[in-house]
């Protein structure tokens, strides 16, 4: 595990120190990768398709599981955000991935035109 962390730190150090790979963002701005840049309305569509996939499967849903490919992407994005936030601020979350996804869904229902990352931030940093 230590080797993986060391390798991650080395690669991250290279990425942030190489002018070709990284540049400084203006204050308050950051680059968004993956599904985080999609609108909440896209996430809500994935939620509905995920629910339909479970109904069609005829199997009871287990916590943290997903069937619909687009929803899996959102679920993995949330899991990564929770992990990275926990690692970077040395803080554990007392939330399950299912609860986090529910919080994101509620945020997106209230703000469908915003980006999915904003719903993730409502979980990882609820004071914002």
From TrEMBL:
Keyword Signal: yes
Tree of life domain: Bacteria
Signal sequence range: 1-22
Keywords: Signal
Protein name in the entry: Rap1a immunity protein domain-containing protein
Gene source species: Acidisoma cellulosilyticum
């Amino acid at each position: 595990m230590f080797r993986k962390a060391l390798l991650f730190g080395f690669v991250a150090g290279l990425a942030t120190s190489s002018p070709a790979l990284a540049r400084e963002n203006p204050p308050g701005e950051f680059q968004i990768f993956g599904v985080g840049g999609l609108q909440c309305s896209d996430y809500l569509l994935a939620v509905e398709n995920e629910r339909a996939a479970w109904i069609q499967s005829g199997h009871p849903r287990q916590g943290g599981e997903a069937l619909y490919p687009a929803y899996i992407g959102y679920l993995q994005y949330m899991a990564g955000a929770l992990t990275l936030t926990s690692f970077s601020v040395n803080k554990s979350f007392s939330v399950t991935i299912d609860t986090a996804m529910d919080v994101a869904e509620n945020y997106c229902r209230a703000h469908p035109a915003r980006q999915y990352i904003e719903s993730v931030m409502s979980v990882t940093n609820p004071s914002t």
